[in-house]
Amino acid sequence: TTKSEVPLPNPGETGELRGSVTGDDNGGAPLAAVVIVATSPAIPSELAVATDAKGVWALPDLPPGTYQVTFHYANNSIVVRDVEVKRGQAWVFRTINYPMDPTRSNE
Predict the structure, then answer these.
(1) Which helix (H) or strand (E) holds 100?
(2) Cα gap 7→20, rounded to integer Å
(3) Which residues, in sequence order, are CB contacts of 105 under 8 Å at separation 6+?
(4) What is the rounded distance in angstroms from the CA atom of residue 24 to the CA atom of residue 10?
């Protein structure tokens, strides 16, 4: 997993988490229906989104704070801890490859 922080084109009071997911078992093709869940003290409840047919996902308009992001697919979970969302910034997860060992934590 590669992640990087990039500026948003229209910086404001919120930040964003986004990325793409591909599969190891399908030659690196995009994976649809991977569920990404974000939790943080900065939000009242967890937020979830699923990847689209191109394996792309986004959680926009997040208040600044520290987030834990979990990727769920086919009985596997990958947890990324302590992603700091800042105003006007996006964390971009370049690629998450599945399947993964469900006990493994990528950071």
Answers:
(1) none
(2) 18
(3) 78, 79, 80, 81
(4) 34
